């Protein structure tokens, strides 16, 4: 008899936004009530069926921050294994098209100088994103 174990893993695609404004970058602190409570992330969220990465991102940023963004540049995708699921983070450098923010999910936001980003306690996948962002800035 041939026995086999088939591991099924959920794969979640999460576009997220590195929003630049006046030389600063926006970081969002996750709510105390969510997974990875009070850790910092680039706003964004899970892709829904039939959405492009860009459509997901524009929708999520409207939902979470009530602003419109313009997407400037896609950065390299990074993958995080959370055991029972794999998170595919798809980062985009963006700028604001509207400026009045209203938070609906985050505990708080902060605008940081790019060189200060690593002072926060980021969710695990975001350190790769910050590294890619520094490479992007160095090549500008
Ligand atoms: N938006 C966003 N999510 C991130 C980042 N880094 C990272 O690991 N994630 C993970 O990707 C998932 C995005 O889910 P979400 O923002 O749509 O919703 P959620 O917290 O309710 O999800 P969850 O409860 O399933 O973890 C979360 O598990 C989050 O921890 C990031 O920079 N931005």
From TrEMBL:
Class of the enzyme per the UniProt entry, highest EC level: hydrolase
Matches recorded under InterPro entries: MutT-like, Nudix_hydrolase, NUDIX_hydrolase-like_dom_sf, NUDIX_hydrolase_CS, NUDIX_hydrolase_dom
Keywords: DNA damage, DNA repair, DNA replication, Hydrolase, Magnesium, Metal-binding, Mutator protein
Signal peptide segment: none
One record GO biological process: DNA replication
Keyword Hydrolase recorded: yes
Stored CDD domains: NUDIX_MutT_NudA_like (cd03425)
Residues covered by the Nudix hydrolase domain: 3-134
GO molecular function: 8-oxo-7,8-dihydrodeoxyguanosine triphosphate pyrophosphatase activity; 8-oxo-7,8-dihydroguanosine triphosphate pyrophosphatase activity; 8-oxo-dGDP phosphatase activity; 8-oxo-GDP phosphatase activity; metal ion binding
Entry keyword annotation includes Cell inner membrane: no
Enzyme Commission (EC) number: 3.6.1.55
Cofactor field: Mg(2+)
Family the UniProt entry places it in: Belongs to the Nudix hydrolase family.
Protein name listed in UniProt: 8-oxo-dGTP diphosphatase
Species: Dyadobacter frigoris
């Amino acid at each position: 008899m041939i026995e086999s174990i088939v591991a099924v893993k959920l794969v979640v695609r999460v576009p997220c936004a590195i929003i630049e404004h006046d030389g600063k970058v926006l970081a969002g602190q996750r709510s105390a009530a969510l997974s990875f409570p009070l850790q910092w992330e680039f706003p964004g969220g899970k892709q829904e069926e039939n959405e492009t990465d860009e459509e997901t991102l524009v929708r999520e940023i409207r939902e979470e921050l009530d602003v419109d963004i313009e997407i400037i540049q896609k950065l390299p995708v990074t993958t995080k294994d959370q055991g029972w699921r794999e998170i595919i983070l798809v980062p985009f450098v963006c700028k604001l098209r509207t400026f009045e923010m209203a938070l609906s999910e985050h505990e708080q936001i902060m605008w940081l100088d790019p060189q200060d980003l690593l002072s926060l306690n980021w969710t695990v996948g975001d350190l790769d994103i910050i590294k890619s962002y520094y490479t992007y800035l160095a090549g500008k």
